[in-house]
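Quick check before the chapter quiz. The format below is the same one you will see on the exam, so make sure you can read both the input and the output lines.
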Amino acid sequence: MTLNAFIIHFLKYMATRKYDISTGDIKSQMLGYKDVSGTEVIERLKSEGYVSIEGNRLQISDSGKNYIEDLEQRELEFIHNLVFDDYDLALIGFLYNRNDFVRLEDFPEILKTMAPQHGKAINDGNLLQSLYRLKPYIDDQYQWYIINDTGKAFYKRRNPNLSPTQQTNSAPHSNSTTGDLDIPVLKESERLWLSELYKFTVKGERFTYRQLWAKLNSQIPTTFKTAAVDDRLMSSDGATIRILGVVALEGNNRIIDQINIVINAIRKMILNNGEVRNIPIDEIALATGLPKLDISLCLELARYYINLFNESSYKENSTILLSIDVGGSESIFYTYLHFEGIQYYLQKKTEAVNGNGHDYFSKSERESLNEKLDLLMEMMKKVTLSQEFTYDDMMQEFSELKDLYGLKKKDWRRLLAAKIADMTAGGVVSSIMSEPIADGIKPVLNKLLE
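Here is the expected output.
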C-alpha cells in the first residue's frame, strides 16, 4: 500500500459520509498495514491542508473537498467516454490513470452500476466479479487493487496514441523495472539509514545527520560510514537522499514516474505560455492530481540532476516548496523543451559511477581491486608484525577499503595512501619490506596506488 492511496481513501470517506472522523479511527484502520502508519496519514492530511483538526477529530477542509472533486471529475470524464462501449477497457483504464492502489468501495459509482451482472444483489459484488475476471491484468491486496505490468501493456496496446505523460503512468507500486539502470543492492545498515532519511525528507522536515544517528544508533554499527555508501543513493554526509536511493528502497520506479509527470506538466505550462515565470505548486497539483508534498519532493530530487528552476519559495521552517521560478534562464527553458524523461539523466550518472565516466571505479575495476587486496592480505599472513599492530588490525584496515568504492578514484587512492602512511609511521611497512616476500608485495601495492 502507499501513503497517497490512503490519503485518497480517507478523504473520500469523509467527503461522502459528510461527517468528521477521529484520529483513533484512522490509526485503528491502519493497524493491519506495515508500510504506512496512521500517524503518517494524519500528518500528511494536515500538512496538505486537506483537513482541520480539533482535539482528536478530523474534518475535511474546502481544499480537501476540491482535491477529491477535481480527481473524481477527471476520472468520471474518462470513464464516461468508454464505459458504455467497453466496460473492461474503462475499468483497466481507470486503474492505469489512477496509478495507485484503489480500495473496492472507492471505485467510481459508474463502474459499480455498469459492471456486468453476475447475479449479485449489490453493485460492489458485480464490480468484484469483474475485478476477479480481469485478474491477469489487476493485482489485489486485501481488496485494494492496482494495475499490473500485463494490464499496462494491454491498455497501451489498445491506446497506441497515448501522450508521453500518459505513457509514464506505468503502475509505480508494482515491482516494475527501471530500464537499464543499475540499481545497487542495499546492505541492511544502508536500508535502515535510507529508510529513516526518507521519512524525514518526505515530511519536508529540516534535520541533520546527527538526528539520524540519534534515531539509529542502536540499530546500525558505529563503523557504518555514510561516505562509503554509493553516492547515487545519497550524499556523502548521509543527509540527502537521491532518486536511486528511493528506487532502491522502494523496489520500484514510482518516484521516477512521478518526477516525469511533474516535469512534463511544467513543460506544458511553459510551452502554453512562453512568458510564464513563477509557478505555484498548487497549480502543478491541479494539473497532475498529485499531492503537493509529492510534487515538492519530486522537484527537489530531480534538481540534483538537471536545472529546473532559478529561485523558489518554501514553507516556513521546512523544505516544502510553495512555488518555483522557471524564468530568466535559457538553459532552464531548453531543459524543459528537450525533456524526455529523468531516466536519461539517471543513466548518465549511472554510467559515471559504473566506469563509463573516469571519476569512479567500474564494476570490473572494483573486482580487480578486490583481487589485489585479497592477494595483499594473503601475503601479509607470512609477515611477522609487531605486538602493537596485529594481523587482524591490518586486515581490518584493508578490508575497510572494499566498502569505499563509492568514493571517487582519487579519493579512494588517497585513503589507501594515508593508511600506508600510518603503517609506515608505526614501523609496519619497514618491517614488511625487510621480509623475504617484499619483492612480491611491492608491485601489488604499486598497482593499487596507480
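If your answer matched, good. The CA atoms of residues 88 and 365 lie 52 Å apart.
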